[in-house]
Amino acid sequence: MLINKILLPHDGTEISDMALEKSKEFAKAFNAELYILHVIEHIPIPPSLILGNDRQWIAETRRSIAKKLKEGWLKMAKEKIKPVLEKENIKFNIAVLTDEQQSVSKQILKFASDNKTGLIIVGSQRLSKISKIKALGSVSRKVSENADCPVMIIH
Q1: Which three-class secondary structure state does DSSP give residue 80?
Q2: Which of 10, 52, 58, 151 has the highest CB neighbour number within 10 Å of its CB?
Q3: 75-96 pLDDT, tens per residue?
Q4: Nearest CA to 151 among 2, 54, 6?
């Protein structure tokens, strides 16, 4: 199997860092380019702020918050992820998506398709007992069920 592009959706959690470690191994083994993707979820505006404000104000507020979140995540990636990948001579790209009209899983799947990804490595919290039922809507599960390429889920 030829894999020249690997996608790592990274949400800033410890489990995503574990998935990053596995992604580095695969990137080295396949001499593949690693795409690190962060998706900013829909930003809810509290009802108390919506009252009396128009839709344009709400949209502008969401865009402003998304911009700040994007800048913060890119700063973290530049300080924490970039040096490690450069030190290990791994080719990489870092991207942040902020499309409120699509779910996180759909944005990941679209990014994977648009970039002709050969493998997706995603972290997922290990759940047990009744909590597993809640996982039916999780991002990692939706990505694994709908991706056009293999998906590795890291626990």
Answers
A1: helix
A2: 10
A3: 999 999 999 999 999 999 999 9
A4: 6
